[in-house]
Amino acid sequence: MAIHATTDQTATPTAVTPRQLRRSAAQRKARHSTIKIWLGAICASVIVIPVALARVLPLPDPVRGVLRESSLPPLSEGHLLGTDPNGRDLLSRILHGGQTSLVIGLLAIVISGLVGIILGAVAGYYGSWVDTLVSRALEAQMSLPLLLMLLLVVALFGPSVPVITVVIALAQWPEPARLTRALVLVEREKPYVAAAQVLGLRRPTVIGRHIIPNILPQVLVVVFLLLAQAVLLESALSFLGAGVQRPYPTWGGIISDGRELFVTGKWWLVTLPGVAIALLVIGVNLLGDGLRDRTRRAKAGDA
Question: For 163-181, how does the pLDDT look when each residue is reduced to its tens digit (9 = 90+)?
Fold first, then answer.
């Protein structure tokens, strides 16, 4: 059925067919975002679901191995992805190591999201010296070499899970803080904020009850995208020996243990955990990118 639209009563009617609507730029963007969301969800689920179920699946012990089963290739009897040089099942180590990496990543983005949203909202709403102080802290944080800073802090306080989580969180807070500040600068000029001020609401109440709920969907998408970076940072620290200490498995530690044997033909020791990291990072990025497109369109529609 054709949709007829006229600019005024004397203008010639124009017909916009359903096919033309499907080929419009807005519809193409909507389809692309849907594809990103589905692909991202599939890639992330392939890793996240088995990792979440690692403790209930019938898997061998990820810490103790059998030396006579050392370095078995994938599809060996009883070992779907093979074993490492110490005879430990590689699938079990990847799934249990994924739990460590994901827990650290999730806790890190929760902390960095809270810190970034609070500081960004305060800086954007209050302005003046508060904005200057937060902005200078952002610039100082972003000017430091990220990995070197993480290695220094871990070396000072020790490579424990709480330390690594807090260090990654403190390294990531500038991203949500910058976005929150920019959004609050726009929101504070809107009529509903002026109305709340006229009613006598205190500034923290205006920020917490009115401004933050309006900008939260956009900020949460950015915080979610930080999960991929947090997992990569944790893996990098573990690869360099500054992460969770052995014998507990982590993705970076598994790759580090197998890197010397990679050149001798034992490719699965490095490739398979690397594929797990890549699938998770690609999935999170695609899913977050698609959600960000949806959020922007929804915000534009409301405007």
Answer: 889 889 988 899 999 999 9
